Amino acid sequence: MKKKMRVLAPVLALTLALSACGGGSGGSGSSGGKTDTPNTGAAGGGTTTKTEAKDTITALLPPVSANFQDSFSTMEKEFNALYPNLTLKIEPASWEDMTQKLDTQVNAGSPPDIAFIDASGISKYVDQGMLMDITETAAKEMIEDFDTGPLDYMKMGDKLYGFPAYMEIHALGGNKQFMEEAGIDYKKVQKEGWTYEEFREAIKKGVVKEGDQTKRYGFVFATAGVTSKDYLNILVKNAGMPAAFDKDLKYAYTSKNFLGVLKAIREMIDDGSMPKELSSVDAGKRWNMFLTGETMITGKGMATFENSANKNNEKIKANDGSAVQGSIPVDYIVLPVPTFLGSEPKSSAAVGGYVTFRGKKESTPEHIDNVVKAAYFLSSGKVAATTNNDLFVAHITKSGREAAKAMTINRNPDNVAAVETLLSHATPARPDIPTDLGAKAIKLEDEVMIPKLQALLAGEITPEAMHDALKAAAIQTFGEDGVVKD
């Protein structure tokens, strides 16, 4: 149910002071001058002293949160109210077709000015020469509004390519009732974590059978469709491989620890804790299985799932027929991913944000300034606070935290504390990884790792065969000295 939210006048004044541009056409006359802040009068806003040229900024945005796309018209109007000479034109996209739409526009040389993508995809577009460096354009006040950790994810080397919207932790989610019935001390797990061995024993206890038929699995993870990359990427971070490259820039997934994770993936299927048909479970089916009581623990779990579960519970209680068919009331519990092979916990941090693109034709300094204004508008203040509250994720800007004070949110305090713990050991950004290496790693993931993973999940190849194939491809890509050998 949508909530009507408002921002206090001082917050609007802060947003204006941080993001508005004074004088001229918003540029310094060089290739990306600093965007200045104006003198705003009353708390309700202010106007620049000179007439500025009309300009349109385009943005391609997926459904970042449940209500995000419903607010596009409001966002466009509020941005135009801040900058009467500027028009923000938002094109919606689904998560499924977002990458295809963006790549089509990029390949045609006419990408949107702004696109919402995962920070892990930045290297791909930097390598293609299609991203706009805003390091010298973004005002100091804008930069200082963001928490350092999430902002670093939007960098490659010393260049900044946009602003982050959130830092989300990819975790697991559990059914409180089922875990209590299985004797799992989930509060201890939330605080202290668990090893793979402890996790495996726990999910075995969550399996419920009637004869030869499994009525409930201990663990289900979505591995089909757009979720195909998630499973491995989340698990390997807790196996001593927080990034695709180690600190010496050697490709990490040739390590014996990677093979250990692959073996664990097969073990959980082979002992019946996970479905044999796991390779066909997409995000929608995974969530439905959780809500209908067909699994005790689900993945990947995100903080927003608590919100989704609560809303479905309300529908069940109201008996209005709009709840997921066959669903039961669920108390959603945030859980950490288990650690492997004695490794330290490293939470998989997902940072999504508003990345700035450039076309074949060089943009004017004025247009670059305007794009930065729009990217900052979307990632800070009221827009960020509303979106992040909808997602149940932490706020990563000072202006967002301030705006959120006027908003109501209802969360399980145990889950809030668990997410804070996971954030405390989130994987750091790696702007030191060169763009060409990052792009090659993504290509290797798409062409070798994920297809082989699907074969492993289907029981068509062994963990050893998958690891050997990945090692061979990695050596061919990075050279004998460019991969980890242990």
Describe this structure in words.
With 486 residues, the chain is of the alpha/beta class. Helix content is 42%, strand content 14%. The protein has two domains: 9-168 and 350-424, Periplasmic binding protein-like II (D-Maltodextrin-Binding Protein, domain 2, 3-Layer(aba) Sandwich), CATH 3.40.190.10; 169-348 and 434-482, D-Maltodextrin-Binding Protein, domain 2 (3-Layer(aba) Sandwich). The protein has 19 helices and eleven strands. Strands 1, 2, 3, 6, 7, 8, 9, 10 and 11 form a nine-stranded mixed β-sheet that branches. The protein is globular, with a radius of gyration of 23 Å.
Note the gap between the termini: 53 Å
- Structural class of the helix and strand makeup? alpha/beta
Number of domains: 2
CATH superfamily of the largest domain: Periplasmic binding protein-like II
Instruction: Encode the helix/strand succession as letters.
Output: HEHEHEHHHEEEHHHEEHHHEHEEHHHHHH
